[in-house]
Amino acid sequence: MIRRVAGCLSAAIESTPLGHRHQSALLRNGSAQLQNVRVYDWNDLRYFLAVARTGSTLAASRASKVNQTTIARRIGVLERAIGMKLFHKKQTGYVLTEAGAELRATAERVEVEANAFAEQAGAMGRRISGVIRVTTNEGLANTVMAPALSAFRKLHPEVRVDLVVDERRLDLTRGAADVALRTGGRPTESGLVARRLTPMAWAAYCSRNYAEERGCPSSVDTLCRHVLIGAEGPIAALPGWTWLRQAAPGAEVVATSSSLTNLISAVKSGLGVTILPCFLADSDPDLVRCIGPIPGVQSDVWLVTREDARDVRRVRAFIDFLAAHVAGMRPLLAGEAGPGRARI
């Protein structure tokens, strides 16, 4: 903008008779100053217009809420920079010179453009738009992310969220995603920023039909007398299934699965007992919580983003919203709510 101001003033000076008259003087006095960005501070033009409109530095000072001495000094700086007087100083106040009167119109055009620039920048700053790529696992995607995205969309309809559901930890540092909602240990990769959210509780579950036919294991000691459904793949490393393998090493494992959704279906079918995150199982009326929440068995939930993305407005808005959304789900994540709490 300041370069455009300099260009407008230069063009205005050169297009006037006064401009031609003073060209040699400008060259002698160093007309290269017209290229000096500092000289054409927009404030100098504001002060010039304020004095032109009010007729005095005192009135301009009151209108612009800037010290009168500062305004007079900056007018002097501007006059020296362009090599001509802009005002005649009289007892009645400041009167525009012929050059000042001609340049006033150009300065007012610059003022209009500067105001338009500020208004456009402000509007762009208030508007949040664009695409955010988010990754999480299947369970969090279905239970946490889906309702969160619906609510976020109402607040920011111009932001599109592309959700990548994967049990693997995608590499955010290589641009695989902008934001990740993860469980497990704190991310240690360089270039990432992580926020710890509400921990996720685990418990042992079976179906109502299984409980009616074979009973519901009521303690860790009785787990070994029941058939279990195990996990494999990335989810097998999660705290719940690590605990299950240690708590019932001799129990019969009738099936395994690498999918949380499939594990829940297997339990609901009556195939056996397994360990599940409380927030997934407690909301299902067909499942019965047998043991838990299990003390000391929790999964930390992390909201992760790249350092170079966290201050992007749409990303910042999303991670702040998601953190608040997850905080509101604390009772469900902690195993303190849901139909599955009651044993039969």
Estimated share of beta-strand residues: 15-25%
Roughly what percent helix?
Answer: 40-55%
Give a count of the beta strands, DSSP E runs of length 2 or more. 13
- Tell me the span between the first and last alpha carbons: 73 Å
Order of helices and strands: HHHHHEEHEHEEEEHEHEHEHEEEHH
Question: What does this protein structure show overall?
Answer:
The model is unreliable at 1-38 and 340-344 (pLDDT under 50). The protein folds into three domains: 2-126, Orthogonal Bundle (Arc Repressor Mutant, subunit A), CATH 1.10.10.10; 130-198 and 300-341, D-Maltodextrin-Binding Protein, domain 2, CATH 3.40.190; 200-298, 3-Layer(aba) Sandwich (D-Maltodextrin-Binding Protein, domain 2), CATH 3.40.190. With 344 residues, the protein is an alpha/beta fold. The protein is 46% helix and 19% strand. Helix 3 (42-54) crosses helix 5.
Which descriptors would you attach to this protein?
alpha/beta; disordered N terminus; Arc Repressor Mutant, subunit A; D-Maltodextrin-Binding Protein, domain 2; single chain; 13 helices; 13 strands; 344 residues; four-stranded antiparallel sheet; five-stranded mixed sheet
